[in-house]
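Narrative of accomplishments. A recurring question from our advisory board has been how the design workflow behaves on a single, concrete structure rather than in aggregate. To address it, we present the structure tokens for one chain from the evaluation set, followed by the sequence designed for it. No filtering or post-editing was applied between the two.
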């Protein structure tokens, strides 16, 4: 399983011979100006919620690649009405796709489309594929519901928002890592704009002192599980 960070909360996952793109917000992120969305591969696009900084590039990528949008019911249908293939899900539900299993888990945040219309409830994902399991928190506050995840799934990686202001901060993300019983963390939702700028060295040290490994990848950088 190969994971690439494309800035903000956008993650690409190569698993089971398929390409998954999560929360594509690239053209609106000046820090990701070197990423060409027309070169990105996508068989599936997973969306945690409807905010613009998570869905901005969905339509352009999906219509070029014929990717299937996977999200909560309201978000999936929204893109289905634009002629995009979609697979609707909801909290607590799981589905076996051709690359592996996806389960929708709770997130504490808000969700509305750029025009202000209702975007359903925000979510996170647990993805199981190639004998590796990852958790994508989405934009969320720290929540006790995270403790349910390791009761079903032993994680190899947790992708956690930690930029503060709109989501968890570093300290809450450390607690979230404890809740989901995973010591290997990939940070996301940081540095994109002024409200969520973090001190990288300080964040890594706090995770290290807690016995955990925090990775803050450069945009376009990849890891392999």
């Amino acid at each position: 399983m190969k994971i690439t960070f494309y800035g903000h909360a956008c993650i690409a996952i190569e698993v089971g011979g398929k390409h998954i793109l999560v929360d594509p917000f690239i053209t609106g992120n000046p820090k990701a100006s070197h990423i060409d969305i027309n070169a990105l591969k996508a068989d599936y696009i997973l969306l945690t919620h409807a905010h613009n900084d998570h869905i901005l590039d969905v339509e352009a990528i999906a219509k070029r690649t014929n990717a299937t949008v996977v999200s909560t019911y309201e978000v999936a249908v929204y893109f289905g009405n634009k002629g995009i293939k979609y697979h609707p899900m909801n909290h607590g539900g799981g589905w076996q796709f051709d690359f592996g299993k996806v389960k929708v888990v709770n997130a504490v945040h808000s969700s509305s489309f750029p025009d202000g219309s209702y975007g359903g409830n925000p979510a996170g994902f647990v993805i199981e594929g190639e004998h590796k399991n990852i958790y994508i928190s989405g934009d969320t506050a720290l929540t006790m519901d995270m403790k349910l995840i390791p009761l079903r799934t032993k994680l190899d990686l947790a992708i956690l928002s930690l930029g503060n202001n709109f989501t968890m901060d570093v300290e809450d993300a450390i607690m979230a890592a404890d809740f989901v019983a995973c010591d290997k963390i990939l940070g996301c939702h940081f540095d994109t704009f002024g409200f969520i700028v973090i001190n990288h060295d300080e964040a890594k040290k706090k995770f290290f002192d807690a016995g955990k490994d925090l990775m803050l990848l450069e945009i376009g950088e990849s890891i392999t599980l």
